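Objective 1b of the project was to move from sequence-level analysis to a structural picture of ligand recognition. The entry below was assembled by the postdoctoral researcher (A.K.) and checked by the PI before modelling. It contains the amino acid sequence of the target and the SMILES of the bound compound, zinc ion.
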Amino acid sequence: MSETVAPADNSAQDLVFVESCRLPTRWAEFQMHVFFEASTGKEHVALTLGQVNDGAPVLARIHSECLTGDALFSRRCDCGPQLELALQKIAEEGRGALLYLRQEGRGIGLLNKVRAYHLQDQGADTVEANQRLGFAADLRNYSLCEPMLKHLGISALRLMTNNPRKIAAMQGLRVTIAEHLPLIAGRNPHNDRYLDTKVAKLGHMIDSDGVI
Ligand SMILES: [Zn+2]
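Corresponding predicted holo structure:
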């Protein structure tokens, strides 16, 4: 089964819903939905739990892929613990959605992320490293969320994020942010400076104790 999901605007970007299946996890049995982005060849994922298409705001996490943090247990960032905590909170509520967007390394890809990590090993911070490689500090694009959420019947979110840019980006789409909730997890000695840089240069809402 496949179905073209209308793009968020009139751009060439298009997203095709492909299929859904059960995804049992440590926390709950989610429904997994896969989408194909024809313009980039990327495959994106949504996990849902419970009935999310009834119009009530849905507890949600919009998570950008981080291979090192999500799958390889890296402590250089806080992505893995945030992903786990988001799934746990959705499971506790018995209802929610997680969009997993394939935009590795704040949008610069894995190879360039490792190049940026190499520069950070030599003393650059995360923003300086990206800029030294010729990239903006954050290249992530959230416009895909709109057709994904529309396909899932979700019109309003209770969004778990510490990132005001993500909230602003979502408000620029036709998605209601009914509430935003902090998602604090995973500060450790290896990512202390990285998280402080996200606060100082990218406006993230985390204080030095890891609490807003
Ligand atoms: Zn990460």
